[in-house]
Amino acid sequence: MLKNLLFESPYWIVAPLLIATLVVAWLFIQRRGRKTLILLLALPLVAIGLVVLATIVQTDREQVRASWGRVEQAAAAGTTPAVMAEISPAFSAGGIDRADLETNLQRAAERADLTALRFVLLSVQVDDDDDRSASAIVMATYSTQRSPLIAGPSSNFTSRWQVDYRKDGDGQWRIADAKSISPPGLNLRWALRQIK
Fold it and tell me: pLDDT tens-digit profile of 75-127?
């Protein structure tokens, strides 16, 4: 919690520091004390330091979000190799391993427009007990001209997934597993075959 506050959104600390600087400036104008001057100089320096630190340090959650962003960009561009760069060598999801996933993605890309697939990253949670695992909740929507799931000339199929990340030996966060949350029981192999 403190790590996220300091490195991801320090503005909850910076804003009160800047308000305190204004109060101290008023006090300095009234009293002209040495301690007040030191505080007047220190508070904005601390605020600036926090912003610089947050800019330099990338937390695990930010790294997972960045990885997912690369997956979204690769899917929007329809580039399977770029998607696979974000998949862990140890990937396994409901009977599908990394090689199966790559094959299924290539087949889906050959028969469909993957740019019709949209993702929304809803949340990221890094495991506090194990700093090498994280989970992301993702909503995936696939827009089709015709769908066997929904009648009509065009339709959308929306699902929610828990995407598990692991930090690989090279320190990079990669996708290790994916499980359907909604609709329940949906598996990845079936979902990839529905892309037409």
Answer: 878 788 999 999 999 999 878 899 988 988 888 777 666 666 777 888 888 87
pTM: 0.72
Q: What are phi and psi of 115, to 5 degrees?
A: -70, -15
The residues near 10 (Cβ < 8 Å, ≥ 6 apart) are 50, 51, 53, 54
Find tokens 């000339």 and name the residue.
153
Verify cis geometry, omega within 30 degrees of 0, for the bond prior to 183: yes
What token pair was written down for 181? 């949350």
The span from the CA of 58 to the CA of 63, in Å, is: 7
Q: In the numeric block, which tokens belong to residue 90? A: 């140890």
Residue in the structure block whose two tokens are 């695992």: 133
